[in-house]
Structures are given as structure tokens and as C-alpha cells.
Amino acid sequence: MPHVSFVIVNWNRKALLEECLRSLQRQTLSDFELVLVDNGSTDGSLECLNRVCLPSVTTISNPDNYGFARAVNQGIRAARGRFIALVNNDAVLDPRWLEEILSGFSVQERVGVCACKILFFDRPHVIDKVGHLMFGDGQNSGRGHGAVDHGQFERVEEILCPDGAAAVFRAEVFESVGLLDEDFFAYTEDIDIGLRAQLHGWKCVYVPTAVAYHHQSATLGPYAPRKFFLVERNRIWLVLKLYPWAELIKVPFYTGVRFLYALGSLVSGQGRAARAARGGSAWATFTAIVRAQFAALPGIPRMLAKRREIKSRRRISTREFTDLLKRYAITVRRLTF
Fold it and tell me: Do residues 161 and 198 make contact, with C-beta atoms less than 8 angstroms apart?
């Protein structure tokens, strides 16, 4: 039985997938298997397996794009390792990534998830994410995102949750908290599983010596309206599932503040909303976010049912979870600008 199972989902990214798989081939630890789930690619993506030598490979070929979350779950079910490494096909791992990240599980008891340092592939001196921070309405932002990496995140430490581009989970985590939420389709599912793990008493540790390089938003593009739609809809479902009631009633206020700051970003020409407007259509982005509010409505009963199930099995108190959200909070100004 392999010690680690890599689960990688691919959809029409042949060149990036091969680059990712070659970084697996260069790992200093070789006791792993690969479970590759292809979501109906039409570009011949799986052909690259003939050019990469890996210890053990299982492929699952879907006839259509089933969505990221569902495909990951297919991979997890097929995985045999004690640890499951979820890696995006647009990530490239440092040769010591696996060896280093596994060391995080011995830091303290109940470590169920380990996160790594993720840098931009085309700007390897700039941080993409070193874990996540949360705004009051459930919007998340990469910790350290956009900062020059000058050694400010070099400590092994506990964080809130990992980024799904490259992280390792104990297989037991999925056994105890369940798999990724397939209703999400794509985006925010890493935050959801990370927070559910926290609610079940699992800790997440950041390991800075495990480094990955990320081609950011290679699937849809950083400013695609479809991405904004999914992120906004899934944010609403996330808070309905997981946030304590005392925090949930504040969510509309926080969202209003976030939208006001986004307007300020557009007017000033600075910040994320301004970059999104330059990178695509401001009107398409706006309509995608509005559509997301309405698209979230039919899913409310399902999310509330999941909320009850999660509450019945959680291992930390409401106060402890609220303290976690506050400890890893991001201000609206930092989120926007």
C-alpha cells in the first residue's frame, strides 16, 4: 500500500498537466501513487502519461466535466494511501515538497492537514498563498497574497485552512468529516473542507519548506465571470453551512461593506475590483455576482440540512470556532486593496 496518494484533476490542460506530473517524478520521496481524474478532456491530456515515469498510476476518465469537487472525490475514493495529497494540475512542486510537507504531521497531535508555501510560477519571488484568511461574510483571501517573499513566512505554524492548489490530508480526515461538497462544483471547496476539519478537531499546519509554484487560475482565468459567479455563490453556501448564527446574521452587513469597498476600488482604479475590470468586463463581472445571489437561493435548504449534520458531529464549541474565524480574519481594506 502506498504511503501517499496524489489526487490530481485535469480538464483540457495537457501542457500544464505534464509539467505538474514531471514535478511529481522529481520528488525525493517515491513511496506514492497517482490517481489522475480527467474531466472529459478533448486535448489528449492523458497522452502525457506515456512520457512521465511514476511509481503507480490510476486513471479515471469521465465522459464530461463533472466539476472539480466531484472529480476530487472520485480520486479520494480510489486512493489507497494513509495521506492524500490534493494537487492542482496547474501547480509545480519543488522536488522536496512531499518530504517536507509530511514532516508537518509530527508537529503536534491531531494535525490532519498540512499546507505549503505557494508562489506564483511566473513570479517565484511573490507569494500566492500561505494558507487562507477569512472576511466576515465568508469571502476568503490568500494569506500573504501578492507580497514579496523575503522570509516573513518561514515558521512552521498552525493556520486556519490550506489552499487546494497543493495540500496534504490524512485519509482519516475524509473518513471523519466527509468528502468535498459537490454542490460547490468548483472554488471555495478547499475552504469548506478545511473549516469542517477544524470543526471536527483536526489542526492545520503550515510548512514553509514545502514549496509549490502556481499558474494562477489557469482553468478559467483570473477574471472570468464564471469564476466570480462560483466564488460568490459558494461563499453564501459556505456561511450557511458553517458559520455560527451570531456571525451569520452579520454576513449581509459585511457583504454590503465589501461591495462598497469594491466600488471604491473601481473609482480609484486601485485594488482587486479595478484589476478585474481591466482584466475583463466590469459589467459581466457585476452581473455574474448578482446572478450568484439568486442562484444560491435554491440551495439554502440543502445547506441548512448539511449544517445540522455537521453540528451533530463537531468536536469543538461554537466559541472555539468563532475565535478561530476572528484569529484568522482579514480586514476589508486589505481584502480590497
Answer: yes
